Amino acid sequence: MKTTFLDFEQPIAELENKIEELRFVQDDSVLDISDEIERLQKKSLELTKSLYAKLTPAQVSQVARHPQRPYTLDYLNSIFTDFQELHGDRAFADDHAIVGGMARFNGQAVMVIGQQKGRGTKDNIHRNFGMPRPEGYRKALRLMKLAEKFGMPVITFIDTPGAYPGIGAEERGQSEAIGRNLYEMAKLRVPVICTVIGEGGSGGALAIAVGDSVNMLQYATYSVISPEGCASILWKTAERAPDAAEALGITAHRLKSLGLIDRVVSEPVGGAHRDHAAMMAALKRVLQEELKALTARSLDELLKTRFDRLMSYGRYKEDAA
Amino acid sequence: MSWLNKLLPPKIKRESRSDKTSSVPEGLWSKCPACEAVLYYTDLESNLQVCPKCNHHNALDARARLNILLDEEGRREIGAEVKPIDILKFKDSKKYPDRLAASRAATGEDDALVVMQGSMLTVPVVVAAFEFRFIGGSMGSVVGERFVRGVQAAVEARTPFVCVAASGGARMQEGLNSLMQMAKTSAALDLLTQAKLPFISILTDPTMGGVSASFAFLGDVVIAEPNALIGFAGPRVIEQTVRETLPEGFQRAEFLLEKGAVDMIVDRRELKQRVADLATLLLREPALV
């Protein structure tokens, strides 16, 4: 598949085009230009490295939304085996913006749940662009309770612009569905590992992101409101989204330094979309490590640590009243 | 007219002139935003800010809310020592500390939640009330922490916990810290569950976003005030997304009752009695006399 280049990647795109042209020329040329191609390829890699070393938060948010970025089902199909997808919330519908089911991770039975974006317009409409409705969150909760019943660790993948702002979603209790998940996940009696793989959009993301460890991929974002939404409220224009992205502190490293997430998972040079296999391998190692550490702990200790951590969120000062 | 006045742009001149001409003392009369009846302010106040003509429930600030819900004796504020800081050095058109200062000046509060221990018709309770005029009643670190301290105080004293929400949602200026308050406040409710103590959630106009989508709908009983706007996404955002006009009464308390989202709609003037009755029922205590 040809890489889709983001606007700030234009210099890389130009180089890659040139390499492509040279390759084409080489096919019917007597001269050997493979050295030149190799030199340019090296240069392109260096350029990618240096561009990605200093991405602005707004650029990171573009990478997090890259159309070729690996999605939940990509991880599910490559890191896990024997995936048995389970459907529906038993009350209203099956929400295609959240997928989930049992699978094996290195042979161990686990429950995997994640938001799923679509590739291409048709698939995206099917997946509602990864924006869940209440039935999606209720399906997720049903699967978590199932996991709890059978002692399976829960692994979640977060990748959503946010919960869907629609008429039906409100009528069916979007707020209640999200709030219920927060409450239940905080006391779920199995280990819960959450990883933000792309966009962590607000309450819609958090609704499957309360757990014992919260990871973020290097170029994922996690935010209380989308930079566009924030800009249109505080700056009165969505065009100031880059400023909002900067101010909100939505990148993995910033959030790690604020103590709001546990771990940053490094991505391949130029982002996960450039090398799916390498990304899968890297995340698999992290999940392996965390699952081992979490299952080694007693359930009581696990739940207490999870609860204490939730209570510790937020920064304030304390004055004599 | 002095030379300075001549230099002033016309807009400023107009404003200063209108200041001079207003001869009616401020706050004496009030116009109902719903039925446009002109009301004597003290009448409105003694009627708990409910329009005597059309029953429209006007906004109530946090302390006034606590005043009408709690008995006069034995009140104790909880969490007042918890105060906001500017974690992210957040700046939009205004710096966050400036917004905090402006809200403090306008409301006399340090943040958007006031928590008070006391009693309701002699039933001991802890009540948390949102101050909507403080950055839209938005939930940041201080709101979350005060909420949790209120829950803890209720558990310690073995009393019900009551929260009166009025909020636009999570506070943007504290970034992800605010989002995490949703998880923090929701998780804290389990302390009440463990202790078999009631959580009564009262939703007032407006209860939206991150507050709506966390503890607000987790009440053992969920009450709404008449006509309150309650929902996850704002009506304008929904309208822009679905590109159709919203149904009449959409996201209003009556609409939520119809959809099964809330247990009851209670008139503000009956709220204290109803909450106290519910609390005694849930605690399986004798009825109030």
TrEMBL record, chain A:
Localization per Swiss-Prot or TrEMBL: Cytoplasm
The UniProt record lists the keyword Lipid metabolism: yes
GO terms (BP aspect): fatty acid biosynthetic process; malonyl-CoA biosynthetic process
Pathway: Lipid metabolism; malonyl-CoA biosynthesis; malonyl-CoA from acetyl-CoA: step 1/1
Gene3D superfamilies with a match to the protein in the record: 2-enoyl-CoA Hydratase, Chain A, domain 1
GO cellular component, one term: acetyl-CoA carboxylase complex
Name the UniProt record assigns to this protein: Acetyl-coenzyme A carboxylase carboxyl transferase subunit alpha
Organism expressing this protein natively: Craterilacuibacter sinensis
UniProtKB/TrEMBL annotation, chain B:
Subunit structure: Acetyl-CoA carboxylase is a heterohexamer composed of biotin carboxyl carrier protein (AccB), biotin carboxylase (AccC) and two subunits each of ACCase subunit alpha (AccA) and ACCase subunit beta (AccD).
Function: Component of the acetyl coenzyme A carboxylase (ACC) complex. Biotin carboxylase (BC) catalyzes the carboxylation of biotin on its carrier protein (BCCP) and then the CO(2) group is transferred by the transcarboxylase to acetyl-CoA to form malonyl-CoA.
Residues annotated to bind Zn(2+): 32, 35, 51, 54
Annotated metabolic or biological route of this protein: Lipid metabolism; malonyl-CoA biosynthesis; malonyl-CoA from acetyl-CoA: step 1/1
All residue ranges annotated as the CoA carboxyltransferase N-terminal domain in the record: 28-289
Textual note on the cofactor: Binds 1 zinc ion per subunit.
Catalyzed reaction equations: N(6)-carboxybiotinyl-L-lysyl-[protein] + acetyl-CoA = N(6)-biotinyl-L-lysyl-[protein] + malonyl-CoA
InterPro entries reported for this sequence: AcCoA_carboxyl_beta, Acetyl_CoA_COase_Trfase_b_su, ClpP/crotonase-like_dom_sf, COA_CT_N, Znf-ACC
Swiss-Prot/TrEMBL GO biological process terms: fatty acid biosynthetic process; malonyl-CoA biosynthetic process
C4-type zinc-finger residues: 32-54
Enzyme Commission number(s) of this protein: 2.1.3.15
Recorded family membership: Belongs to the AccD/PCCB family.
Entry keyword Amino-acid biosynthesis: no
Cofactor: Zn(2+)
Gene Ontology MF terms: acetyl-CoA carboxylase activity; ATP binding; carboxyl- or carbamoyltransferase activity; zinc ion binding
GO cellular component terms given for this protein: acetate CoA-transferase complex
Keywords of this entry: ATP-binding, Cytoplasm, Fatty acid biosynthesis, Fatty acid metabolism, Ligase, Lipid biosynthesis, Lipid metabolism, Metal-binding, Nucleotide-binding, Transferase, Zinc, Zinc-finger
Record's protein name: Acetyl-coenzyme A carboxylase carboxyl transferase subunit beta
Organism of this sequence: Craterilacuibacter sinensis
Subcellular location: Cytoplasm
